[in-house]
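Retro notes
What went well: the complex prediction finally ran end to end.
Inputs used:
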Amino acid sequence: MRVNGKEITLSSNHKLLDFLEINQYDPQKIAIERNGEIVPKSAYHQVILDNEDRLEIVSFVGGG
Amino acid sequence: MELLINGKKMELNCDTAFEVRDCIGKPQDIVILNGFQIEENCRLKENDSIAVIGKGRLPKREELESMMVARHTPRVHEQLKKGKVAIAGLGGLGSNIAVMLARIGVGQLLLVDFDVVEPSNLNRQNYYVSHLGMPKTEALKIQIAEINPFIKIDVRKKKVSEANVKEIFSGYDIVCEAFDKAEMKSMLVNTALAELKGIKIVSASGMAGYDSGNRIKTTRVMKNLYLCGDLENSAEVGRGLMAPRVQICAGHQANMILRLLLGIEEV
């Protein structure tokens, strides 16, 4: 799987939400594009990742 | 030859820009030829655009617009005047971005913020002591009318939530995310990308403190999402938001919006 341009191998099919937790992403402060489509937050617990996926995970920090 | 003089097509028997100036104005007047203020005389071509502007003279409203347009590069202004941009959050980023977009002549702006101007805003936001207590939407609307009275301004004094993103922002070409909290940035970007097909978002992340200004960049992180900032420096205890980096970031956002309005999608 490609995450933010880097190649990663998944050992088994992961739930997106688990992947985020393991990699310490806060679901409240990110946006995810999966294979060119935005993933709604309400779908984070449903999406199962596979090794063909391309993910872009954008993290936001506070300030403006 | 036929020339565009102060916004009007005119047939004039002049070969150089300064001949036009001497014909319709005074020797000390400012001369702008095709969007550029000239100090030395230039030969003219058919259809050149020339503005002759008297220093210190208050122009009439219809004259003013052509004088302001004269400073824009030809063809750029027409496209920007058609542009519709919504700005979500009128703090350090949003207030400065709104003023920049007004100065370049973006035709229609939507200003969205629920808050009023407070003393703690004045260190970086585009407001004055005279605006304290006033809704930010109103304070900014008044300023923009003074900067460029030819811009259509809509305001919404409202807190943005998942439930109202579609209703507030539909109909705009670009949404500029200029919120303060990371959760709000994330909410707006997610909801707008999911519910407003084809909309482009110019967002910001990481501009607090006084780290190098050169670390602030514009990146196209998704097909329709551009992100400006250093992506790291959050506002937190011991690292406040300061005018220079906030304005550098606002400048990145405004410039990306300008590029998108001109049809350029690369950062």
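What we learned: Chain B has two domains: 2-72, 77-261.
What to try next: split runs per interface for comparison.
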